[in-house]
Predict the 3D structure of the following.
Amino acid sequence: MSRMRRIFSHVMLGRLLLLLLVTAPPAACTRATEVTGDSPVQQSASKGPVELTVVADAGTLDVGSPLVLEIRAVTEADVVITMPLIDVEDTSMLGTFHVLEDQVRPDYPDQDHRIWSQRLVLDTFEAGTHDIPAITARFTDRRGDVEITGSVTTEPLGIVINTALGEASQASTLRDIRGPVQVPLLNWGLWIILGGLVVALVGSLVVYLIKRGPVPTAPPLPPHILAQEQLDALEAEGLLQRRCFQPYYFRLTDILRHYIEGRFGLVAPTRTTPEFLQDMRGSDTLHTPQQDQLRGFLRIADLVKFALHEPHVSEGEEALHMARCFVVDTQPRPDTAQGETA
């Protein structure tokens, strides 16, 4: 009987040690490897049977450039990782980075271990140093008789985003205010006569306007008609042919944003692209294909406006054609207008 008790005590002691190992704090097991420039940077952390590594393909990149982020968890054979490691379906954002691609890969065996991984492609249009947030991997340890759950978390990973303006932004500083300029007054009498004439002219104009009454104003154009006229005027300016891509895309997106505000009531002109896309996802005014088309258009336009991307002239003409098609597809239909009037 005493032998059975000793065996039972050893088993319970082994389980207790395993539980303490898995739930131990990971601070002493966190490793960081950061290399400046275009070299990859990474953060690693381990806890119990799990080692988690986050690798960015570059520690420094230009604004608007894609950043590939690899997340990899190596576990023992009977340890299961909760996937995905990062869930970005709701916001399409990871910290200050936009998530362009999200690929969750199936796990696979590697000798006595198992590999779990996820790949993200990110970008941002904000210059400065930004952190990839801390990544947490949750796992279930099934190696013993009792399942044990736990988690391991990496430290944030710093990425330096350079502005595409470079040294030009430093040169655009404000100049000092010039001193007062003396205005010669050669003949006071002449100035008094001229002042009297100006006052008389302004008074006559005021009296004329009062007698004439308010000038009737024409009713404002419908948003789709106004947008079509503005798109025609933009094409006639020939900005694409002169390779003035930034003014062209600024004007094009401004026309489309004001049309969306006038047509659907969405506050588009004063919102950033991520803010506007978030508002659009929360509204049912645009169908999913229209939202996808608009999201791709704004992404390309931001690359031209803020990342100094120079597209081909044909791409600019295609963007103008897309804007026209969007206005035509979303303009009020006769039956809709009658229904609103009724």
Observations:
- The radius of gyration is 32 Å.
- The CA atoms of residues 76 and 113 lie 5 Å apart.
- Residues 18-28, 167-172, 337-342 have pLDDT under 50 and may be disordered.
- The chain has two domains: 25-162, 223-333.
